[in-house]
């Protein structure tokens, strides 16, 4: 498990998690916070493109394929990997945000959009905070869908050591 604070944004598909996290990353970066983002994908996904060398290595049966350039790198694990193991490999950041992982052990920020017609994916009392366009009946901190600054304030305050 990672020693870096982790917050998971949980909601049903189409609620706006990605857009919210995208805006939050911009806000946190403007405050000097180094951020990693990990996305849970319930579907099969491909990051290699057919015909590329890394794709060819994967097709040949490589268990792990690594692509490195002068300014970025990717490790492609071509096998099941426990998310805690992957989180433990993330270094040199102040905070990890995840999208999904409603069953993870870290604090969850529930996101709800009324026009989706869906409730929060977990009970409100299991949330660290709630982001919604409707009033939630809870004692948890609540934020509007556009209150990125307020969400960032809450997260940043939780990163600061307590005296």
The total count of helices amounts to 4
Q: Which class do the helix and strand fractions yield?
A: alpha/beta
Could you tell me the radius of gyration in angstroms? 18 Å
> What's the order of the H and E elements?
EHEHEEHEEEEH
Question: In terms of topology, how is this protein built?
Answer:
Layout lengths: L5 E5 L6 H14 L4 E5 L13 H8 L3 E5 L4 E5 L5 H7 L5 E5 L8 E5 L16 E4 L9 E2 L4 H12 L4
Helix pairs in contact: 1-4
Describe the structure.
The protein has 163 residues and is α/β, with parallel strands linked by helices. The protein has a single domain (6-45, 80-159), classed as Rossmann fold (3-Layer(aba) Sandwich). It has 4 helices and 8 strands. The protein has helices at 17-30, 53-60, 83-89, 148-159; strands at 6-10, 35-39, 64-68, 73-77, 95-99, 108-112, 129-132, 142-143. The strands form 2 sheets. A 6-stranded parallel beta sheet has the order 2-5-1-6-7-8, with helices on one face. A hairpin with a 4-residue loop joins strand 3 and strand 4. Helix 1 (17-30) crosses helix 4. The two termini are 25 Å apart. 20% of the residues are buried.
Which labels suit this protein?
alpha/beta, six-stranded parallel sheet, two-stranded antiparallel sheet, Rossmann fold, globular, 25% helix
Q: Briefly, what is this?
A:
This protein is of the alpha/beta class and 163 residues long. The protein has helices spanning 17-30, 53-60, 83-89, 148-159; strands spanning 6-10, 35-39, 64-68, 73-77, 95-99, 108-112, 129-132, 142-143.
